[in-house]
Amino acid sequence: MADIVGKQIHGFRVQRAETVREIGGKAYELRHEQSGARVLYIQTEDDNKVFSISFRTTPKDSTGVPHICEHSTLCGSRKFPLKEPFVELVKGSLNTFLNAMTFPDKTMYPVASRNDRDFKNLMDVYLDAVFFPAMLKDRQVLMQEGWHYEMADEDSPMSYSGVVYNEMKGVFSSPDAQLERHVMSLLFPQTTYGVESGGDPDVIPTLTFEDFTAFYRTYYHPSNSYIFLYGNMDMEATLAFIDEEYLRHFTYTSTDSAIARQTCPGSIVKTFPYGVASDEKTAGKTLHSLTYVVDDAADPTLGLAFKVLTYVLVTSPAAVLKKALSDAGVGKDITADFQDGLLQPLWSLSINGSEPSAQAKILPIVRQTLTDLVHNGIDRQALEGALNRVEFTLREADFAGRPKGLIYGIRCMDTWLYDKDPLAALRYEESLRILRQGLQTKYYEDILQTYLLQNPYYALVSLVPERGGTEQHDRKQAETLAAYKKTLSAAEIKDIVASTKALKKRQETPDTAAALATIPVLSRRDLASQAEAVEMHKETVAGVTVVRVPDRTNGITYIDAYFDLHGITAAELPYVYLLSDVLGDMDTRRRTYAELASQIDLYTGGLDVSVAAFSDYQDATAYTPVFKVKVKSLNGNVAQTAALLQEITTASVFTKRERLIELVEELKAGWDMDAFRRGHTLVMHRLLSYVSPVEAFSDGGEFSYYRFLTKLAATIRERADEVAKTLQTLLEKIMTKAALTVAVTGEGAAYEATAQALSSWFGALPQGRRQTALCRFTLQRKNEGIMTGGKVQYVAKGGNFRQHGFAYTGALAVLDTILQYGYLWTKIRVQGGAYGAMTRFCGNGDMVLCSYRDPNLRSSIEAYDALPDYLATFDVSDREMTKYVIGTLSRIDIPLTPSLRGAKAMSRYFTGLTAEAEQRRRDQVLQATVQDIRDLAPLLRAVMADNNLCVMGSEGIIRREKELFTSLLPLTE
Predict the structure, then answer these.
(1) CATH fold of the domain at 268-403+410-465
(2) Is the pTM of this model over 0.90?
(3) Could you give the CA distance from residue 371 to residue 919 in angstroms, rounded to a whole number?
């Protein structure tokens, strides 16, 4: 490798070549001599290739100009003169990742694909987008993606609209996002981190077209770019393409994108209000954040050390700082996080489920607890367990289906952006050595002393609920816009109406065939005709069915235990979900929960408990509900792992009242923070629960569970003994040998030892008997409007098409692509200003359409209702139809990690979906025609006519549209 250093390859000078053993790759750092572009290429055997181009973008205000530029560059370019080439790529690419991301100090444009031709096409479209965008001359791009005044006619009220504007309204509907914004503005009053790169909805409408284009011209130049390449590719051909098509057309220019270092402004303690619905309870809804600035950005070892400490202090069930705060009654849900990827990283402690008066207690408790730990020492077994978790995660490198190269590229930017070694963030062996040595010294205590106890650079910020605050804000904004409208002349008002109509016309007008033809497209011949096989072997071990899934796992075994939940009643269901949330975090007959947590950390890569339900492939009303215990460990630790599974499933006890109370109150406080952010998930499950037994079961762990937790948290101190008894009874009812099926994903050589370890566990389980009765629900349409203090909506409509006599076909998967990136993209996102929309078409007939962070309500429903007519006359060229087929397969053929492969195998097992049936569905996708899509119009018409509707969002908007609903209800009871 050293021989290549100093050589020039197609305009790039190789500055460095090194092996990165931790990821099995060879790294080459280059610089394009003419343009100044930086390049990092990591050569590996991974066929899932990644390309990313990033720019250091440092805004000076909260207009959201980096975020709006990120959206807008992808709205047409020199080579690709379409309105949205990004959407056309999603429709017709085999990409394994395609997106763009705005960070506080950088903007990234990553793509990935396993197909060489497709990968080159993706690079071409993205490079043309960032270097030659249409947005510089087309003001309508800023209007659509950023913001604009909207007026349907001269007599209409004036309003703001725009995709980023509405997206950020949704973001700031979550109180934790508001809290973070206050924290950053206080900690960094003089640098780019003190403003909102995503955009503050109150500030976005001050962005002018001139400032928008000036920002682009300042930062979007190769001299300010960072190009990342990863995977198995022809390095010379790739560099030649980038040079010849793009970089050789630019010369180096100095770009002032440096990030200033903020000097400590002093310690800060502040309180701010946030809005909740007018009838929402405010008790226990205060949030606090204590955030320290850690001034060592380029030290990945310190970052890993903070992750270890965060787990020991706050995240672990036995976390000492969390316990001290909880025991003092400061809050119910206490979390912490080390945020790197900033020049000056942060360590933040977040406390939810609190009261305003608790603010005064936080600093004294934190300081006393940390002082005691520094003086007396941190528990070494707790540190070792936390370090094992961190190391396991690094070595496993499982990113839940996302390409490895994507995550590695983001990590490299954590140092590269600040002119430090980009490979430092990928190398962890030396860091782990230092961290292990630190177990024998005062290394961890010194970190607490230096970066927290002696650090004056912090902010303690509280957010206090204010009833009707959102409505007051919206009312003031409407009054401001009305007052502004009065200052306009008749001609100016006509101009705004005309520009509104012109934008609508642009949005409704399809791209020309010539423009569409500029996007390169694969042919159907390029597509794999065979569905990917998932190898699995059904065996019996000590009387229990074990499904073995062979895979290369780098010495890790994945064990997923499924306990069948037939026999559970509707009254027991919320307690089953509660059991899944507390199991593993309570005492056992052998150990305290703290001792148990230590053993889990020492011997496993993490244990997760959940509840799920699998719809039967053939019977639309049948499903298999399961209680799932999932664990992973190194092959050498499977015996200890199986012993822990045995202890948790057979010896857990719930009699420690204070621990049970603490967990219930923590769960409820966590839901308070997460519910609105997860609004799309809640309304989709809730709506389908009106018509579908499996979804009624799933709703038991979503919206219905949140309401159950709210009631339970209010009475848990009186009912703790009763709840403990219920949980104990359920544990004994569920954890039986007869109900158990286990999946083992791993390497064949390790299976025998795993089977032997599992057989000991199986022998300790009570035999029980397999139940057959399903949980029964009364299905009925409710048409609910769920009122919150949020500023946007999640609007869902749907039902079950099999109840109308229709069958599932692969064409529905293609329709999913057509709707998400065609009809709904245009109607809901482009024209409606929502952040997006999604669909679900399930084999059991359940289907739902849902908008995401949507400023509208009625108009979105009208778009759903007009869909059948659109489908009845659907007409696109063969080329466009092929794109939809390709885009569909890109979402089907996700590269499988070992854990995903095991999950896919068990989904087939429980649903009964055969390889033949899956192949038949794939064939239907590959052969889908325009007529197949038209034939789906009656299916959509029947389901839309059922008029099943569920909406979560702004209390004011829902109340104004109350005639759409049969019931209005608050988020919590």
Answers:
(1) Cytochrome Bc1 Complex; Chain A, domain 1 (3.30.830)
(2) yes
(3) 62
